[in-house]
Amino acid sequence: MKGPNGPKIWPIVGSLPGLLENGNRMHEWIAENLRVCTGTYQTCICAIPFLARKQGLVTVTCDPKNLEHILKVRFDNYPKGPTWQAVFHDLLGEGIFNSDGDTWLFQRKTAALEFTTRTLRQAMGRWVNRAIKSRFCPILEMAQVQGKPVELQDLLLRLTFDNICGLTFGKDPETLSPGLPENIFATSFDRATEATLHRFIIPEFIWKLKKMLGLGVEMSLSRSLKQLDNYMTDIINTRKLELMNHQNGGPQHDDLLSRFMKKKESYSDKFLQHVALNFILAGRDTSSVALSWFFWLVSLNPRVEEKILIELSKVLVETRGNDTSKWLEEPLVFEEVDQLAYLKAALSENLKTLPIGARGLKTCHF
């Protein structure tokens, strides 16, 4: 049986067989369907009459005009909706990536204000510079000396994870340390994210039943969430004591969690935990995946690599002189990065060609 203008829809199970069969190549499968259907198609995840209208009917589109309408022109009319929020609630609560309306707007404004402050910008520079200089570059140099390959994507994932944790709640998990150790928070976060995403490919009533019975990935999700809760609870309790000590002359903290805790409004520990987890989700995989794709594309285009190096050299001559040995003493600062127009253009082209958020789910208000 063929869908209205998309993939096969079977009685009862809808397009679920296709989703499961292509679970390891979801983006390619969706793109293939979109090409056949000239940019937009409809499908049904669950073809059971009383469930189809609630969860099963889906319109998939990559048409620029449709995307502009949904994400910009009528943004308020297309919230994340109950399906998305139910899937992510256990992990993200009512954080910025799992909320709509006033709750989303408040967090969006608060975060935007904090990220534009000079203090947080300086903190970001400190975390990134330290990780690159003391950990990332030495690992690459050692691999070069020993003539051994490195898993660049894993290194970038560890780099961005350490940075976003430091920026979000002021604690360094040190996953990019020598030997590349495992970290219980990083491992639990990975497992929780993977188990949560698994909910998207099965009907809601099935994963909720598995959650109630503690079966399959839902059992793994429950364990991971408990470990995350313990880790974050310790951090929040410790930070409360540190902020109290700061009032009496103790050390100052400039991470995002501390900034939320210093505000006049009173937030529950669970809300603060979800705020932190939302920003870790936003800043970890997105940055590392974008950088992985970027280095891969640059490796395939030597001409682009040459232009990037020429531009870097010109900027470094102006800011650090002609002695090339001094160029690598410290990572680039914001003022130097601001002058790299071609590099910014290459990064933008990378994001356009291989977007890090290739899929998004919205619910339409009729």
TrEMBL record:
Keyword annotations from UniProtKB, A to Z: Iron, Metal-binding, Oxidoreductase
Full protein name: Cytochrome P450
Family statement: Belongs to the cytochrome P450 family.
Highest rank taxon of the organism: Eukaryota
Classification via PANTHER family: CYTOCHROME P450
Cofactor(s) in the UniProt record: heme
Transmembrane segments: none
InterPro entries xref list: Cyt_P450, Cyt_P450_sf
